[in-house]
């Protein structure tokens, strides 16, 4: 649909332009800095920062009901720059020109309601939001579309050239960074640092396929993160981890999409997300806050963050009910199937603390909660979800386990509807499924396969057959007909099928 076909009252608002004023604001000392260069930490105190639009652009352009109309009509556009996360241009990076926006198919991932059986087992009505259906098969594409679009705008202005984009990763960040950097063929290359032996083969293959330089180093993600932080502080590189505020900004689109997909009615809604480096839960809360302050939604949904008991620093921090006594302490992580959440010292913890306080204050009640789940529950819930028509990754299993725990604790009631996050595609973690089915998990995971969830292929060689087809040596004639008939009968017997009566 073309903008000229839209209602007159919003026609001039449909296509956004590069406008507004954005700044970095430090969460430590409160200082503000311009965005003409990429900053990852405050130059004054070294704390992490968040991006803010300071001109009140969204409020000046339209009120809440009008914004709903604008965003709903933008759904019908066939303009690539507005088909992805930048449909919400004014709420993400309004200073980014549309001709600098990278769109590789990210965003607007489906929300799929769980079937009746799974909802009954869980004790709640809920939907999976399948962020594994992004281009590199994870939610990290949202942040990369934002970060690389902004870098692209700097390249186009001549402010940056010959950029090396770097990141530390447990898999998904590296895949997304390498993919988006490879699309920008002029002036940008990418390098990723991975913890040796801690990334699945499927995830390792992605940055390699996109042409990135891949370095595996000893240790865990936190160690890789320290190395790239050191690189970005001493060398001319573009850091693409969640210290990059543009990364976090793009992930706010997750909240905007949920609001729009549920017709902006957020009363009695619960959003459950896994916590890794704490950037995503920060972005999810901040996204809902922006829509709430603009009047697009009238209620802030309940937020539940979930961590494995093998990597639970945020959960432990919020165990202390007295805010004055809370003290953040990093933890030493143990082996986890939720690899993207296997982080003991989240970079975005200061952002979480800041945004949780604001979110609860504007909700006028405690509205952000944290759950801890076991590795056993994560793996069982991933398989349970996928046995019921989903494509959940291990982080998706983590959020389902978190929702079940929240229901058990009475935190989610039968009048509420939940949206839970499957951050990546199940195929990225197929190795864990194979390990579960074969019963070969190392002891440190603490996972024992549930026989009801175990599955394996069965060899079929029908009794009475002496000849079998092979590659390059097919059967023919009566031999082939006999093979087909007896094999079909053997399978029917195993499946306990009844013969047709007519």
TrEMBL record:
Source taxon at top rank: Bacteria
Residue intervals passing through the bilayer: none
Catalytic activity: O-phospho-L-homoserine + H2O = L-threonine + phosphate
All copies of domain Tryptophan synthase beta chain-like PALP, residue ranges: 104-420
Cofactors that this protein relies on: pyridoxal 5'-phosphate
InterPro entries: Ser/Thr_deHydtase_PyrdxlP-BS (IPR000634), Thr_synthase-like (IPR004450), Threonine_Synthase (IPR051166), TrpB-like_PALP (IPR001926), TrpB-like_PALP_sf (IPR036052)
An individual GO BP term: threonine biosynthetic process
The name this protein goes by in its record: Threonine synthase
């Amino acid at each position: 649909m073309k903008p000229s076909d839209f209602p007159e009252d919003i026609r001039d608002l449909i296509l956004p332009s590069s406008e507004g004023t954005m700044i970095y604001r430090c969460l430590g000392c409160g200082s503000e800095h311009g965005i003409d260069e990429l900053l990852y930490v405050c130059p004054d105190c070294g704390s992490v920062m968040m991006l803010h639009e300071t001109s009140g652009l969204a409020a000046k352009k339209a009120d809440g009901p009008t914004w709903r109309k604008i965003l709903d009509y933008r759904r019908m556009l066939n303009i690539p720059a507005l088909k992805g996360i930048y449909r919400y241009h004014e709420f993400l990076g309004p200073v980014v020109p549309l001709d600098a926006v990278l769109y590789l198919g990210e965003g607007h991932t489906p929300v799929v309601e769980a079937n009746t059986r799974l909802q009954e087992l869980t004790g709640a009505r809920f939907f999976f939001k399948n962020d594994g259906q992004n281009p590199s098969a994870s939610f990290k594409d949202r942040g990369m579309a934002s970060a690389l679009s902004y870098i692209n705008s700097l390249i186009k202005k001549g402010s940056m050239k010959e950029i090396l984009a770097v990141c530390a990763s447990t898999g998904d960040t590296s895949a997304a960074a390498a993919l988006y950097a490879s699309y920008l063929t002029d002036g940008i290359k990418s390098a990723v640092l991975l913890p040796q032996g801690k990334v699945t083969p499927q995830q390792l293959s992605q940055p390699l396929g996109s042409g990135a330089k891949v370095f595996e180093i000893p240790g865990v993600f936190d160690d890789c993160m320290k190395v790239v932080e050191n690189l970005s502080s001493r060398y001319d590189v573009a850091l693409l981890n969640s210290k990059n505020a543009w990364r976090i900004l793009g992930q706010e689109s997750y909240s905007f999409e949920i609001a729009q997909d549920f017709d902006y009615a957020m009363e009695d809604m619960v959003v459950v997300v896994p916590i890794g480096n704490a950037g995503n839960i920060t972005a999810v809360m901040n996204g809902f806050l922006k829509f709430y302050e603009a009047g697009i939604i009238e209620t802030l949904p309940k937020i539940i963050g979930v961590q494995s008991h093998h990597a639970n620093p945020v959960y432990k921090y919020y165990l202390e009910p007295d805010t004055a006594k809370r003290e953040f302490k990093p933890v030493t992580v143990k082996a986890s199937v939720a690899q993207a959440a296997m982080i003991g010292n989240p970079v975005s913890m200061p952002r979480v603390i800041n945004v949780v306080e604001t979110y609860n204050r504007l909700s006028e009640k405690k509205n952000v909660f944290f759950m801890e789940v076991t590795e056993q529950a994560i793996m069982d819930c991933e398989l349970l979800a996928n046995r019921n028509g989903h494509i959940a990754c291990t982080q998706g299993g983590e959020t389902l386990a978190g929702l079940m725990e929240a229901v058990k604790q009475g935190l989610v009631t039968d009048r509420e509807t939940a949206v839970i996050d499957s951050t990546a595609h199940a195929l990225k973690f197929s190795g864990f499924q194979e390990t579960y089915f074969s019963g070969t998990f190392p002891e440190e995971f603490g996972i024992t396969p549930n026989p009801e969830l175990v599955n394996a292929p069965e060899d079929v060689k029908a009794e009475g057959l002496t000849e079998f087809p092979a590659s390059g040596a097919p059967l023919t004639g009566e031999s082939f007909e006999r093979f087909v008939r007896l094999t079909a009968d053997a399978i029917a017997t195993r499946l306990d099928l009844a013969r047709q009566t007519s």
